[in-house]
Amino acid sequence: MKSMQRREFVKWAAMSSVATCVMGQAQEQVSVKHQHKPLPYPADSLAPYIDTATMNIHHGKHHAAYVTKLNEALANAPDIATLPLDQLIGRISTIANTDLQSAIRNQGGGHWNHEFFWNSMSPADKKSTPSEALDKAIQESFGSFEAFKTQFADAALKRFGSGWAWLILQNGKLKITATANQDNPLMKGILNEKELGKPLLGIDVWEHAYYLNYQNRRADYIAAWWNVVNWDVVNQRFSQGS
Ligand code: MN3
Asked: Residue 242: its pLDDT value, please?
């Protein structure tokens, strides 16, 4: 339904006695929604490293809000509303409407980053390790696995305010970056070229990710988080290349 037609329709529906029912159907017809998927594991399975309340609020409230607001922003942008999320993220810089651009950067980025984050972790009792190939690449890029962890944690710790730290694949090389707010390494034309690449691993260092359990101790949260990294998934992302 075109926007002019829809406005007229909504006006008519609001005046009519069947408004609720008809508008419900109309909204279903025009909407193309991004989905807020359930967590890929029980919310309590990352404890004690990430507590159940944090997981429930983080996924059920914060992440859900990004999805809702993204869908709201896209309701008036039918030309890009059907794009898969990664494609939408990749073309943010081409969106002329600055309000829409900002909504997709923040809410779309928030949705993408959180889905990526949940999938980058696994239950505390499921242990995994970097593959031989990834381990070799980590040693080549950072000297050792321990040195990589130190540099990654350092980037996460030094990210001032809210943001993310990332391990990315950039022109076939591993690199550590950090982004502000809900920006991510896929945001061409928004971030500096040096920060772009294929994300392999990312940590959310917004306070909402750790404050309930760790309060101001971001370093403790980062140190604990290594225990729930799903290396099987990271290995797979790495093996698929850029
Ligand atoms: Mn978050």
From this structure: 77
